[in-house]
Amino acid sequence: MSAAARALPAASQRWDAGRYAANAGFVPALGQSVAELLAPKAGERIFDLGCGDGVLTAKLAESGAQIIGGDASPELVAAARARGVEAQVIDGHALAFDHAFDAVFSNAALHWMREPEAVLRGVRRALRPGGRFVAEMGGHGNVATITTALRAAIRLHGEADPAFAWYFPTADAYAALLQRHGFRVDSIALLPRPTPLPTGMAGWLRTFADPWLAGIAAERHAAILDTAIALMAPALADENGAWTGDYVRLRFHATAI
Fold first, then answer.
1. For the whole model, what pTM was predicted?
2. How does residue 85 score in pLDDT terms, banded at 50, 70 and 90?
3. Which residues pair with 47 in a beta bridge?
């Protein structure tokens, strides 16, 4: 993948901390179980890769571990710092740490990083021997109905097939990548997790769908999203108009060897 293609999400995804908190506050809340898998300990040095607005990062710090957050979004890093989190703007494909951490943690971020081998090289280098990499990300089949409807709506409105797609691997494929980059896979699994959307599908799309619309005139976005919502409503909205996202998460615990 070219650097230009890899940069597409960062260039086209606009993050607003207030909008993220309102429409996607479930992301750090549902990340609590993967934080428990990490089991941070006092005195450990841990890097939170894709820390977002720092809500879960701050929770991790309650363990007494030294937590450093990193995210590609300056807006979300600013929100994390305002929460008291030590955080920096960083490209997950180009981590420059060298044996600096006892653990690397990531929640709901790795699927935005579309060169996984570059990410894993950096994570492995950042870890001390025996360090652990604990994460949850979108897995194979994640938001399949949503992405299919988005792609169909874009085509129905006469636009070209979008160049963007999130990275949602199978457990077997990602386990093989981890092993190739110097990790022992302690556990890895796909976990179906239907997720209620507190502000409906419109709020979810306002928060996450920007990269799908890159290159399309802004005045056409609303009509495309309305079409996508209509296409996915029979599968994801109930009779009262409440929406549930068809989430499938990939959760793993790996050890640097």
1. 0.89
2. very high
3. 68, 104
